[in-house]
Design a protein that fits this description.
Radius of gyration: 24 Å
Number of strands: 0
Number of helices: 5
Shape: flat
Order of helices and strands: HHHHH
């Protein structure tokens, strides 16, 4: 188990170095884009998100809600003394 943890940490460190190297490369910053991004007009942000990416946003919302429900379940404290205090019971 410690080997997997070590391997994961080293992999994340290597990924971080690769991302920093890719973002800092000269080719990324030397040629600016031909046109500026815009959120207005017929190809606006809202139109694109709701028409072209609607299903993807729905799936993303479902995944995020499942993650929040899972996190809420995991943080519940179900020790006997806490359950007794919450429900007002007496230990026998």
């Amino acid at each position: 188990m410690k080997f997997i943890s070590l391997f994961t940490r080293l992999g994340l460190l290597a990924l971080g170095f690769i991302l920093v190297a890719a973002v800092n490369a000269d080719g990324v910053w030397s040629n600016p884009g031909a046109e500026e991004p815009t959120t207005s007009g017929p190809d606006g942000l809202a139109d694109t998100l709701l028409n072209d990416w609607g299903f993807a946003l729905l799936i993303l919302g479902l995944l995020m809600s499942m993650a929040m429900m899972g996190a809420a379940y995991l943080v519940r404290d179900e020790r006997m003394e806490n359950l007794l205090w919450e429900f007002g019971g007496e230990e026998e």
